[in-house]
Design brief:
Distance between the termini: 127 Å
Shape: elongated
Oligomer: single chain
Largest sheet: none
Structural class: mainly alpha
Order of helices and strands: HHHHHHHHHHHHHHHHHH
Length: 378
């Protein structure tokens, strides 16, 4: 009996040892297989990233699919696949992949940012803005938090401006400007965006901050010049744009703005510090210029009855005014004639601009002078 028990115990121990060995062997093989799959997935992932950078979206999609198949628990691979799908215009599948990831990590900043980009690509404003804000206040690695939030807000501003939403873009820009790194490139970038959004005052603040860091920066001088011009500070515009030219700026747009600013400064009959004779000389010269433009426009539009209805009465009026109220002697007796002349200049410039298209920098300057002096508002 004891021998039987002893034999069964021995068999049991032997069976246990075999079972443990098989278990350990199976686990080791599974771990080895897992390790191999991870290495294979990583190789496919690296290859897919390289293909995506090279603009080979479909090849990148195939490689990243292989990566996610080999290591389906790696969220980074799924996120990369979604990016490739978006680049390959497989929008719906990219949506689904990102939404699955977001279900597992709803506050993940990178996932929300990719969803924002996807909706932005489709022109879905409300969804794009929502996910951009989720990304702004989402979870990022602690050492990346500030940099990523600046990056996301910068991207959001660009998206809003591109979509023509200046109101919301200005709100975001005001926040962005307070977080902007204190360097020339960053201030110039924010300044250009303020200009694009129509806020020249805040744009000027950004460009002048850039100039305090580098007084010869061509982009900052150009931006400050344009901002000053928009704000009606034509002396400031001339100063900045002249300096931009000295620093190497050769933008045709800057040249046109500078020329217009110079005309405004040299042709304004109501500028301070002028003698009565200089005021008369300037107004007379301005009236001659608009009369010439009016006659040229009328000649081009002589077969256009609608244009004639507007242009001919103006031609008659300016001829009469030049011979009466706008004569030098009349202007010396009645200074109100200067405003009458500027009012007439404004109406002619608006009419010729509407009927004959864009005018020269001189005529743009004359229109700015008339508006600056409140012509047409009496």
């Amino acid at each position: 009996m004891f021998r039987i028990f002893q034999r069964e115990l021995l068999l049991l121990v032997l069976l246990f040892a075999v079972t443990i060995s098989l278990f350990l062997f199976t686990r080791a093989m599974a771990a080895r297989n897992r390790s191999m799959n991870v290495e294979i997935a990583n190789a496919w992932f690296r290859r897919g990233q390289e293909q995506l950078k090279a603009g080979k979206a479909q090849e990148a999609i195939d490689s990243l699919r292989s990566a996610t198949t080999s290591d389906h628990d790696n969220a980074q691979y799924t996120l990369a696949l979604a990016t490739a799908l978006a680049a390959g215009n497989q929008i719906e599948e990219a949506h689904q992949a990102l939404l699955r990831l977001r279900m597992a990590a709803p506050e993940n900043g990178e996932i929300n940012l990719n969803l924002a980009r996807l909706f932005a690509k489709e022109g879905e404003m409300s969804d794009a803005i929502r996910y951009y804000h989720n990304a702004l206040y989402g979870v990022w690695p602690p050492d990346q938090m500030a940099g990523q939030r600046l990056k996301v807000r910068t991207e959001l501003v660009g998206f809003l401006l591109g979509a023509g939403d200046t109101s919301r873009s200005l709100s975001e820009l005001l926040i962005l400007s307070s977080d902007t790194p204190d360097n020339v490139a960053a201030h110039n970038n924010v300044g250009r965006w303020f200009l694009q959004a129509g806020d020249s005052q805040h744009a000027l603040e950004q460009f002048t901050r850039s100039l305090s860091l580098n007084a010869k920066d061509m982009d900052a001088l150009s931006g400050a010049g344009r901002s000053s011009f928009n704000l009606g500070d034509y002396k400031g515009a001339r100063r900045y744009l002249d300096a931009a030219g000295v620093s190497g700026g050769k933008s045709p747009e800057d040249a046109a703005v500078l020329e217009t600013a110079k005309f405004v400064l040299s042709r304004d009959p109501l500028a301070s510090g002028l003698s009565a004779e200089e005021r008369i000389r300037r107004l007379t010269e301005d009236l001659d210029a608009v009369l010439e433009e009016l006659q040229s426009c009328a000649a081009r539009k002589q077969d256009d009855l609608n244009a004639a209805v507007v242009l001919q009465p103006l031609e008659t009026e300016i001829g009469q005014e030049i011979q009466t109220r706008l004569q030098p002697g009349s202007l010396r007796r009645d200074a109100e004639g200067f405003r009458t002349g500027l009012d007439l200049i404004q109406r002619i410039e608006l009419a010729t601009g509407q009927d004959c298209g864009e005018s020269s920098t001189l005529h743009n300057a004359l229109l700015l002078i008339a508006k600056k002096r409140g012509a047409g508002e009496r």
